[in-house]
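Duplicate of #3305? Posting structure anyway:
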């Protein structure tokens, strides 16, 4: 089954545009894997589910600062990216 990926809002799209080329490449690799294999991505660093089990996250880059992506399966074949940015600025409680 293939999945459609979308951005939850314009802020998420803008965050992606502000990433370095290597971080953007990592995000696009993650997005392609989600499109092909679904939202559960246990092969990514620090992958985990948040709260209600429909929201997932992983690290795009470890170190300081650490960059993360947060996404949610919104219906049977759609995954929405909710946040892309630094771990320090991620409001994990918002997604639980």
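Output from current build:
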């Amino acid at each position: 089954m293939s999945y459609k990926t979308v951005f939850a809002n314009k802020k998420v799209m803008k965050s992606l545009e502000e990433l370095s080329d290597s971080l953007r490449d990592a995000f696009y690799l993650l997005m392609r894997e989600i499109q092909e294999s679904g939202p559960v991505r246990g092969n990514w660093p620090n992958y985990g589910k948040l709260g209600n089990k429909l929201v997932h996250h992983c690290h795009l880059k470890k170190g300081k600062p650490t960059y993360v992506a947060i996404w949610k399966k919104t219906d049977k074949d759609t995954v929405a990216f909710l946040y892309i940015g630094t771990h320090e600025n991620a409001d994990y409680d918002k997604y639980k």
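Confirmed duplicate; merging threads. The longest strand covers residues 67-75. Residues 21-37 form the longest helix (17 residues).
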